[in-house]
UniProtKB/TrEMBL annotation:
Residues 20-271 form the GCVT N-terminal domain. Keywords: Transit peptide. This is tRNA-modifying protein YgfZ. It holds the Pfam family GCV_T. Substrate binds at E203. It comes from the Bacteria.
Length: 371
């Protein structure tokens, strides 16, 4: 008589985030687990504006841990880190001593002396090196967090999709950064309220394996809410329409926070000293910025960043971002312009000798119909 021996086999591993995106039809950014698009940018944009969309954001993560983590960051960035509750996040800026923007970042508190920052990939190396340089004798580890990811859920039906997928309803409206803990397949994820797209929105941060599981759960319920996945191409259109500054475009070492409209979001005037505090406070209490973030409406292809904005032969600003807006059927640009330019004012956008007429508009601009 023969004996058959049962062989124990482990279940196959769950698909990772890259596999999930590929299965959803994503065209990837440089082969990474970030989608540029899913084949129809206009449809992706419409899903967020009219129903709900889900998209992986292109972010890098940095971990701060040690007995001096809170005190150190409190003296570095514009936000009140000491007042940040566990599970919540705050948008902040790292400034130069002259209060120009070195980088923006979001800080999420995971424990009393454990925080995670996410930031734009191009700005993150410089941000990390600056913080390490200022660390001196502070007992805080500053390390890349390689296995984290960020998933955005945005649109009028975002809350309903989240409730269907997870059985809980994170906050999807301001105040920005209000956090909700999600437990998924034994992994802790952090859902924080977001203002990135001008719609109800949450961003889910945590280990990439958990974010991949969140993508799967949300994807299962997406069709019944009329939603779709979206990539970074649609995200950029949504951001520009909403007038939200981005590091490397509106935010750079040429501008102060007040000139790009982020003071209310990013700056605490009740905390102690931080790098660049004096110029920020002086401008806030004793004056006003001579330049502000505005939108420009024009026809034709989006103008190149850096194009000059001209009125009566004088340069009154520069273009920082530009997209073709499905909401308005026109090109929308963001620019840092002289504050005295009123809505509806006609100006010229110039580049390499070419002049194009444009109309000054407020931000957010996607629902504006003119003066």
């Amino acid at each position: 008589m023969s004996h058959l021996r049962a062989v124990r086999t482990d279940p196959p591993p769950e698909p990772g985030l890259l596999d999930r995106l590929t299965a959803s039809g994503a065209r990837l950014v440089d082969g990474r687990a970030v989608a540029n698009d899913f084949g129809d940018v206009a449809r992706e944009h419409a899903a967020v504006r009219r129903a709900v969309g889900i998209g992986v954001r292109d972010r890098l993560f940095t971990r701060f841990e040690g007995p001096h983590a809170t005190r150190f960051l409190q003296g570095m960035v514009t936000q009140d880190v000491a007042g940040l509750a566990v599970g919540d996040a705050r948008y902040a800026l790292m400034l130069t001593p002259k209060a120009r923007v070195l980088s923006d970042l979001r800080l999420l508190r995971l424990g009393d002396e454990l925080l995670v920052a996410d930031s734009e990939p191009d700005a993150t190396p410089g941000l990390r090196s600056t913080l390490v340089r200022y660390r001196l004798g502070s007992r805080v580890a500053i390390e890349p967090l390689e296995d984290w990811a960020c998933l955005a859920v945005a649109g009028p039906r975002a809350g309903m999709l989240l409730l269907d997928a997870f059985g809980v309803l994170p906050r999807v409206e301001p105040p920005e950064g209000t956090g909700t803990l999600l437990e998924l397949d034994g992994t802790a994820l952090h859902a924080v309220a977001s203002t990135l797209y001008g719609e109800k929105a949450v961003e889910i941060l945590g280990p990439a394996a958990g974010v991949a599981a969140a993508w799967a759960a949300l994807s299962d319920h997406l069709p019944r809410h009329g939603g779709a996945p979206f990539g970074t191409a649609a995200e950029e259109i949504l951001r520009v329409e909403a007038g939200v500054p981005r590091q490397g475009a509106e935010l750079d070492e040429q501008v102060m926070p007040a000139e790009v409209g982020v003071v209310e979001r990013a700056v605490s005037f009740t905390k102690g000293c931080y790098i660049g505090q004096e110029p920020v406070a002086r401008l806030h209490y004793r004056g006003h910025a001579n330049r502000v973030l505005r939108a420009l409406l024009l026809d034709g292809a989006p103008p190149a960043p850096g194009s000059e904005v001209v009125l009566d032969g004088k340069t009154v600003g520069r273009v920082t971002s530009a997209v073709r807006s499905p909401s308005l059927g026109r090109t929308v640009a963001l620019g840092v312009l002289r504050r005295e330019l009123e809505d509806g004012r006609q100006v010229l956008v110039t580049r390499d000798g070419e002049e194009r007429p444009a109309e000054v508009a407020p931000v957010p601009v996607y629902s504006w119909r003119g003066a």
